[in-house]
Each structure stands twice: as structure tokens, then as C-alpha cells.
Amino acid sequence: MSLTLGWKNCIRSHPRSRTMWTVNLLVSLFLPYLLYARRQESCEVCEKVLRDVMDNMAMSDRSDANKIDEALREHCGGVKGKENKFCFYIGALPESATSIMSDVVKPLSWSMPVEKVCEKLRTMDSQICELKFDKSIDWETVDLKKLRVKELKKILENWGEECKGCTEKSEYVTRIVEVKPKYIKNEL
């Protein structure tokens, strides 16, 4: 009889035990939720680059670390923007200061999912998962005059266009309107 009621008596008699029991209960209830929420933050640039590389490889080459390394370096040679930054961070570019390519390539050769590889890379370099793609512009509703000059420059940069001699916002807007038909197709 004393064994079955022992824990209840302990909680009633010691205020510290009661608060510790409550804290433990709350932690055990909310910890899974916090871990799940943390896992939902994706490394979208990392996942896209690695998925593109793996999708373009033959099934027989996906287990060879050297071939994955070559394919990743080749892919990184032709990208720009956020993907180029990711490649720089992992050391897939010649100008990269450090390299964690083995930590990327080996798990991929073991058929580890891309999401898990990126999650492991997050622990090595948090910058990798901080890279996010820019939001796409809705060309039907956007008012270029309300965008910042920095955003206008970014649009031109993404298109590979320049605005030589532009110093004012209106000049950037004019240039974007000028070259927009080359890059944005209006659906009828």
C-alpha cells in the first residue's frame, strides 16, 4: 500500500518536487512540438542544389562518391545567385576558402536523403540553411515605381542586364520596362 501511494505523498509533501514534476510534464508535452517545428525550417537552397545534382546523375553513379563530387562541382560551375553562395560555402568552387565536400558527398553516396544531408550541414555551417530564394515577382500586379532601387537592381542582375549610367530610380524603372518583354511573357 505504501508503494502505490508513495509518489503522491512525495508530491504533496515537498513543494519543490511538485514544481519539478510540473516542469517535467510541460517539457515532455512541448518538446516534440518544438523539435517538429525546428525540423520544418528547410534549407531550400541546399535541398534544391543537391536534388538537381542527384536527379541529373545516372542511377549507377549515385553510389560513387567521386562521381557525385565531380557532378556537384560541374553543376556549381554554372550557377549564380543563392545557389552560387551555397556552392561557395561547401567548397565546390575553386575560389572557396574551405571545403566540406566530403561531408556532402559521402552521405549522398550512401543514399541518405537530401533533407538529412542538409540538416547535417546545418550543424557544421549555419549559413548554409540561412540561404533562401528571393520571392518571385507577380508581374501582373507589381508597381515598379514602389520598389526600392536595390530591388530594381536585383531584377536586372537576375536577367543578366545592366543599366549603365543609371543614377535615379526612374532610370532603372525605364530600363526594366524596356527589357521586360524579353524575360516576361504575357499570357493572353
Automatic annotation (TrEMBL):
GO terms for cellular component: endoplasmic reticulum; extracellular space. Residues 1-37 form the signal peptide. It is found in: Secreted. Keywords: Disulfide bond, Secreted, Signal. InterPro entries: ARMET-like (IPR045333), ARMET_C (IPR019345), ARMET_N (IPR045332), SAP_dom_sf (IPR036361). The keyword Secreted applies. Its main location: secreted. Residues 43-137 form the ARMET N-terminal domain. Residues 141-183 form the ARMET C-terminal domain. One of its GO terms (biological process) is dopaminergic neuron differentiation. It holds the Pfam family ARMET_C. Required during the maturation of the embryonic nervous system for maintenance of neuronal and cuticular connectivity. Essential for maintenance of dopaminergic neurons and dopamine levels. Belongs to the ARMET family. This is Mesencephalic astrocyte-derived neurotrophic factor homolog. It comes from Onchocerca flexuosa.
